[in-house]
Design brief:
Elements lengths: L6 E2 L2 E2 L56 E9 L4 E9 L11 E5 L8 H6 L1 H10 L7 E5 L17 H22 L9 E6 L1 H12 L6 E5 L8 H4 L3 H7 L2 E7 L5 H13 L5 E5 L5 H11 L8
Parallel strand pairs: 5-6, 5-7, 7-8, 8-9, 9-10
Antiparallel strand pairs: 1-2, 3-4, 4-6
Helix pairs in contact: 3-4
The structure holds 3-(4-hydroxy-3-methoxyphenyl)-2-propenoic acid.
The site of 3-(4-hydroxy-3-methoxyphenyl)-2-propenoic acid has 12 residues, from loops.
Amino acid sequence: MKCLTKQVFGVLAVICMMTPLAVAQDNPERPRRPGGFGGPIELGPDDVAFYDAPPEGFKTVRGNVAHGKLEMIGYESKTVGTTRKANVYTPPGYSTDKKYPVLYLLHGIGGDENEWVRFATPNALFDNLIADGKAVPMIVVMPNGRAQKNDRAEGNVMASAPAFATFERDLLDDLIPAIEAKYSVDNSREKRAIAGLSMGGGQSFNFGLGNLDTFAWVGPFSAAPNTKPAEELIPNIENAKSKLKLLWISCGNKDGLIRISQNMHQFLKKNGIEHVWHVDDHGHDPVHWSSSLYWFSQSVFQDK
Ligand code: FER
């Protein structure tokens, strides 16, 4: 038994990642400080990669596969008091004759509803995985997690951190009902997932583990300091064990925020809560997040 011990797909899963600064997210070319946000990085024996780098072209549009559709929708938010935007991917052959699982995919502090689209080309990434039989056809919703009237990533983006907490109500009370009214969705908890990067990773921990009757699949990548303490998020170990279908955590080993994910991993390990812990050689950056989405997407909504 080495490192973290969790059996995922019959394999020992251990991963960790690192997180640089949020404002760097919008521009993959922008230079970053080594380590980015956060403090010193101390790596332990569990903090190793469980997956390889994705194959070449994993997020490039392929001419020889069926394509899904990416559209921008508006929904009425009682929480914020505005009409809010979300990018929605529907898979190839989307049909109202079927009911689809839904992944809610959240951005970081410098991002918005277009962030994932900009750097991960999720329509191509999902088209390719679905064509190869590696991901199940799913709807992917990429909303704006900054739940305030002006939700643009402007000025001092750190000042909008409280609005990322407010998004819990927007998500549960406004967005999910709007998605389930507009699309052909299987609305059982086993068919609803939440994942995200950095602030969106913290939101995934907080809203996912905090609402296990709503979400069964949780994927925080490079979680930020908005992550609540593990003891608060998981007051009932047995309940978490029985309700979680997958808790998939990643971070880069050059990410100064890795301590947050390491702490969560240690709590989960100590309490015997199965999870994936994947630590790659990246930082708080789009390469790590694209890779994490690539691998998480091949587990979500699939029983082991
Ligand atoms: C912080 C460092 C990083 C913080 C948030 C972040 C709220 C978010 C980073 C990101 O979303 O990329 O201290 O406090």
